[in-house]
Structures are given as structure tokens and as C-alpha cells.
Amino acid sequence: MAPTKKTSGTAASTEAVKQITYLAASLKAPRITEAAARLADHARDAGWTHEDYLAAVLEREVSARNASGARLRIRAAGFSGVKTLEDFHFDAQPAIRQQVGALASGGFLTEARNVVLLGPPGTGKTHLATALGVAAANHGHRVLFATATDWVTRLTEAHRAGRLPNELARLRRYGLIIIDEVGYLPFEQDAANLFFQLVSSRYEHASLILTSNLPFSGWGGVFGDQAVAAAMIDRIVHHADVLTLKGASYRLRGRGIESLPSIRTTTDQTES
Asked: What is the rounded CA–CA span in Å between residue 98 and residue 104?
């Protein structure tokens, strides 16, 4: 009778696997089938309770789903290249290591705080902005990345099409917007006003990360109006962590060039 009992047990197990496969497909969670099969023998050998086994199977599904979602969010963010904090050379920027570590947890996003990265070209601002964006995506937040010029182009097109309010409302649904390279090119008045509207629409609602090669004192020349620049900076820094990076460009290391020419605004160049 023992072989009959074993056969019966095997048949029951086969039926259970089929049922799990069917139910997992109905739930649109196909990875449950694989996890259930992989963990079954271990659960029996380790004497797990039914609750322990179920929790372990569901944990695998949730982890896999979160990882898949993070990959999709990172792909949709529009990063110029995926960077991580593990890849960043903090030995060159030791003063900001602790601040960046705290920001990586994503707490600033739940508080709708901003992050501003200031420093000369090549010191790692874009790398850090991207890495914090990747971390945010891994924490479940939707992220969008573009240069300041690209953001202005996007807003200009929306304005011309008569849908700027809708576009700003749509962007507020993103937990984090990254604006790279503020200050590399000056803006005309209309563009500066659109940029101001983007900043204002997110004020105390959702987070921004901005990078700039200029100190705040140089932003008036970029936006062509000291009053607009002051109002914008006021909203950005009211709830913000401002990190200043220092030193020579990473890209110049080993090339016999110690520094880049200083970058001046159009106003500076006119006065000289």
C-alpha cells in the first residue's frame, strides 16, 4: 500500500502546483509559481508553518515586483546615463559624504524638500543628481531628468500649445524632477518666466534637484532679471539641502590641465 500512498501524494502535489500556477496567473503574479516550487522542499525540511511558507513566497513576489518597477521608473526617467552613489568618488568630495548618505534614504522626497548641487564643471554634480534620482526610483518615486535648457524647451512647447497649466499639473505628479546644468546658458525673459513657473508649481508640493556651475549670486545674469532670480532662489532654498562641490574637474585628471577657465555670465562679459 505504501507505493499507492506515495503515488497519491505525488498526484496531490501535482494538482496543487497546477492550482498555484492558475491562481498566480489570475493574480498576474507568475513569479509566485517559481517561488512556491523553490521554497516548498526547504519549508518542509525546516519545519516552517503554513504562515511562514506563505509569507516567504509572497515576499519573493513583492521583491521581484518592486525591482521590476524600479527598473521601469529608472528607464522612464530619461537619465543621460545611470549612475549610483557606490560609483561616486567621495575621496575627492569628503565634506558632502554624510549629507549625500542622508539624502539617499529618500526622506527629503516625503517632505517635498529640494537638493541643490553647486560647483565647478566636472566635480560630480550630475553624477550625484542622477544617483539620487536612481535611489528615489528604487524607493518607489517617479523621476524625470533633463537639462535646464531641455526643460525650458518642453515648457515653451506646452505654452505655445496652450497646455502649460496641464503640463505643470502633470509634472507635479512626479515625486522628483532633476534640472541639470542651470547656468550653462542664459535664458531669454520668456524662458526665465517659464522656468520660474516650474519652480513655483512644485514649491512645497514635490521635490527638485538642481545642479549649477554658478553660485546663487550669478543666477541673476542667467535669468536676465535679478528680481525673478531672487524669487526663484527663495522658493528653491526655503526647504532645501545645498551642497557645494569643490576642486578640479575629474575629466582633466592626468591631462596636465589644473583647472578650467572661469565661467562668467553674459552680464559679466558685457561689463568687462
From this structure: 10
